Backbone:
């Protein structure tokens, strides 16, 4: 029984007993685990099958290793360029981290990646033995959770794949000082299941209903908690609880074992917790390996803002945003498209056609509000009035906000809706509009702040869209209309007439000035007249229609 406010205790003896003794004990213990996972996400396991003598020995040898001088500990640093899934070996929290601890990370010894301290002798044997015993315990708790989650027998075991992503950390936390006492900041584990073996110092705490519950040291017991993988698979039915380590006046040692899932596994809520029970998935899928890598980077390069730490809880309980940013095949495609084109067509984007129609039926100010919502906005791009979905994402390295612009196929979302006029486009914030009048105005108006405001508007547009619409720009509207009109007239001429304006062979123009068409095999279907600064003397102008040359010249000439 749990003491008041303490962690639930589960006796695993029935699972390890002979068949006769199992009887009702197994069902009761399974229920106790289920209850603990729902209420705390944590429990204390007793009679778990890991010999207490082994736990004590491994902790003792860990403590001895960490007392060595830094230069000795540094001999167990990870090997550069190793292909280990994690940096196996000795490490310390970066100096700028508020968490003060050091650790030795170990992968499955069978993988051959580990770098063990050679001193004290016996360290390697003890931790390898612990690793094996904790793996057995992991398989047992796996099966118990499988039962608690109502999954087909052996499902989680098969789903996990091989055990190549399991790892263990031998940890030492430094004594607290008067100013600070964080050993490990509040976090959730990215594992499937975690196990903690700790010495008698204490400091591990679990967040329950807004209160920190101490996971007090009890000799021979192991603290068990479920991690993010189970929370996502169960669509939030079982919780990966927040926990932390508070430093005490003396060094504290622990062994934390993370029972994971194979790196290439795709993690998303299981149908048993979604489609089969009529619930919407609360998380998007992600590749486990990517998730682990990001979390590890958070440890070695702690983000300055807590909200930038990767985890499923803080950032995506309701809007699992970061998961989208990881490298699912679709995300890789987005990243590549943004790198190469800056634009991409999104299909199956989840914006229902009715929503788009409803959106355009909204009054202008309502559209503006929607547009300003931080995650996904609808906007209108270009004179064709094709609808674009603009997604403001955060760069993977948290450096800045970018806008990925996607123009869904015009056919499915073209919106020649009444009211979608140029004014309406501006009103809903389609492209930012910048009024350049202050720059063209007299000095008095400039000084009145207009130029500064317009500059700020340009900066903002460049940050958010990379595009903006200018008005009062100094190019006469009549001239623009006339140039377009004369261009249209030129292109309507027969091909042999247009060909007369082909670029001159051997001309020294920086690019072929004159008329051209996209090659027949190009996906792009257009024709054009390329015009350079008339003063360079390279241009080949169509002789027809009359006025074409002078209008092009005027349009290029600064006023
Ligand atoms: O050292 C402990 O008690 C807990 C360690 C832990 O929570 C972790 O490494 O994720
Ligand atoms: Fe943890």
Residues:
């Amino acid at each position: 029984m749990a003491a008041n406010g303490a962690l639930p205790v589960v006796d695993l003896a029935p699972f390890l007993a002979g068949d006769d003794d199992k009887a009702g004990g197994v069902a009761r213990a399974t229920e106790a685990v289920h209850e603990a996972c729902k209420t705390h996400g944590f429990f204390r396991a007793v009679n778990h099958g890991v010999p207490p003598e082994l736990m004590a020995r491994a902790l003792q040898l860990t403590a001895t290793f960490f007392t060595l001088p830094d230069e000795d500990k540094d001999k167990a640093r990870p090997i550069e360029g190793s292909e280990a899934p994690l940096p196996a070996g000795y490490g310390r929290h970066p100096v700028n981290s508020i968490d003060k601890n050091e650790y030795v990370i170990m992968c499955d010894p069978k993988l051959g990646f580990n770098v063990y301290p050679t001193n004290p002798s016996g360290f390697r044997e003890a931790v390898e033995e612990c690793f094996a015993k904790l793996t057995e315990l992991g398989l047992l708790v796996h099966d118990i959770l499988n039962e608690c989650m109502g999954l087909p027998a052996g499902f989680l075991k098969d789903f996990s794949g091989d055990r190549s992503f399991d790892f263990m950390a031998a940890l030492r936390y430094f004594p607290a000082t008067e100013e600070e006492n964080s050993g490990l900041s509040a976090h959730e584990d990215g594992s499937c299941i975690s196990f903690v073996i700790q010495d008698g110092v204490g400091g591990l705490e679990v967040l329950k209903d807004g209160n920190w519950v101490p996971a007090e040291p009890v000799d021979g017991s192991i603290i068990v908690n479920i991690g993010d993988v189970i929370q996502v698979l169960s669509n939030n039915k079982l919780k990966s609880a927040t926990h932390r380590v508070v430093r005490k006046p003396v060094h504290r040692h622990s062994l934390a074992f993370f029972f994971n899932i194979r790196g290439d596994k795709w993690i998303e809520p299981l149908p048993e917790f979604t489609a089969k029970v009529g619930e919407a998935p609360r998380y998007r899928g992600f590749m486990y390996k990517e998730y682990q890598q990001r979390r590890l980077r958070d440890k070695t390069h702690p983000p300055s803002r807590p909200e930038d730490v990767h985890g499923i809880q803080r950032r995506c309980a309701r809007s699992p945003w970061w998961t989208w940013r990881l490298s699912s095949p679709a995300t890789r495609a987005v990243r590549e498209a943004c790198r190469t084109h800056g634009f991409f067509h999104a299909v199956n984007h989840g914006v229902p056609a009715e929503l788009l129609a409803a959106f355009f039926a909204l009054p202008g100010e309502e559209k503006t509000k929607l547009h300003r919502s931080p995650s996904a906005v609808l906007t209108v791009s270009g004179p064709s009035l094709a609808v674009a979905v603009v997604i403001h994402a955060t760069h993977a390295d948290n450096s800045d906000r970018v806008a990925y612009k996607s123009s869904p196929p015009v056919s499915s979302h073209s919106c020649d809706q009444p009211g979608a006029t140029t004014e309406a486009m501006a009103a809903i914030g389609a492209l930012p509009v910048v009024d350049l009048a202050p720059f063209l105005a007299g000095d008095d108006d400039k000084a009145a702040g207009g130029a500064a405001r317009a500059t700020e508007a340009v900066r903002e547009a460049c940050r958010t869209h990379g595009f903006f619409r200018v008005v009062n720009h100094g190019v006469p509207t009549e001239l623009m209309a006339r140039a377009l009109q004369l261009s249209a007239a030129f292109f309507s001429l027969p091909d042999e007439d247009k060909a007369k304006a082909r670029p001159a062979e051997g001309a020294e123009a920086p690019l072929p000035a004159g008329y051209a068409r996209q090659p027949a095999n190009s996906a792009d279907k257009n024709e054009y007249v390329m015009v350079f600064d008339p003063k360079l003397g390279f241009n080949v102008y169509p002789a027809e229609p009359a006025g074409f040359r002078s209008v092009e010249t005027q349009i290029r000439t600064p006023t």
